[in-house]
Amino acid sequence: MIKTRTFEIAPAGEAPTNIAVHMCGTGPLALLIHGFPLDHRMWLDVMNGPLAARRTLCAIDLRGHGESSGQPSSAEANEAFTMERLADDVAAVIKQLSSDPIDVCGLSMGGYVAFALHARHANLVRSLVLTNTRAAADTDAQRAGRDAGIEMATKQGSSAVADAMLPKLLGNSATAEHQSRIREMIEQVPVATIVADQRGLQQRPDRRPELPHFQTPTMVLVGDQDIITPQAEAEQMAAAIPAAQLSVITGTGHMSPLEDALQWSTAVANLWQ
Ligand code: MLT
């Protein structure tokens, strides 16, 4: 059974924000960080699977997403949810959850947040699972694409964002249920949050120089049909991190933990023994 806890965090100079964390399972804590523009529900199949016998799985809703507060007052507010800001939120939650370091797992944008958490709060991180994500910063073309995404979200709303993103998120075997679950999540994210995420994603730094210095046990996972963060890039990232394990989740796209939760969880169990 999944229980929801809410943590009040108060970053310096900001109004308090309530961050929702959805928890199930048993054993050491493992924090699951969702991608853009989603929420904790992308992890539900993983949470209902075998990893819950090894870890207390804690799926966070980042600020402005899911059941957490903190969405910007408007899309025009010029706010950016930088990966560092989101990572500081996550750090504040981890400090309330545990006095020991915990396992951290992030998908795509969640992976960028995990990188920032590791860079700023390494003492909170026991191990890292980086799934369907990349270490590189945006290229100029990707930044321009995000500007177009911001315009689409503000002019046409989050349904248009779902229409544009869905064909890129899922591999060939994804079901209608996967499609409708992702669509529901995207359509429920406030436009102001989508805009703040995109601005933060544009600003994220290149993490590649940090990879050879990682001392944290790390696993990199990727879907072999992922066209947003492709397998070749994941392979380079894993090769650059000392002793990182690499797992390719066959038959899946960018949302591998949702598309094939059992195959993904079986791979992660090699790290979370
Ligand atoms: C995500 O899945 O979080 C996003 O596609 C990441 C990105 O746009 O870089």
Q: How would you describe this protein?
A:
The protein has ten helices and eight strands. The mean pLDDT is 97. The protein is an alpha/beta fold. D-malate binds at residues 35-36, 108-109, 201, 228, 254.
What is the helix fraction of residues, given as a range?
A: 25-40%
Tally of strands: 8
Query: Per DSSP, what share of the residues sits in E-state strands of 2 or more residues?
Result: 15-25%
What binds here, in terms of ligands, is: D-malate
Low-confidence stretches: none
Structural class: alpha/beta
Write down the overall mean pLDDT: 97
- Number of helical runs? 10
What's the arrangement of strands in the largest beta sheet? 1-2-4-3-5-6-7-8
* SSE pattern: EEEHEHEHEHHHHEHEHH
| Structural Rg | 17 Å
Cα(first) to Cα(last) distance is 22 Å
Q: What coarse outline follows from CA principal-axis ratios?
A: globular
Largest sheet: 8 strands, mixed
Can you describe this structure in just a few lines?
The protein has 273 residues and is α/β, with parallel strands linked by helices. 40% of the residues lie in helices and 18% in strands. The chain contains 10 helices and 8 strands.
Which keywords apply here?
alpha/beta; 40% helix; 8-stranded mixed sheet; 273 residues; single chain; binds D-malate; 18% strand
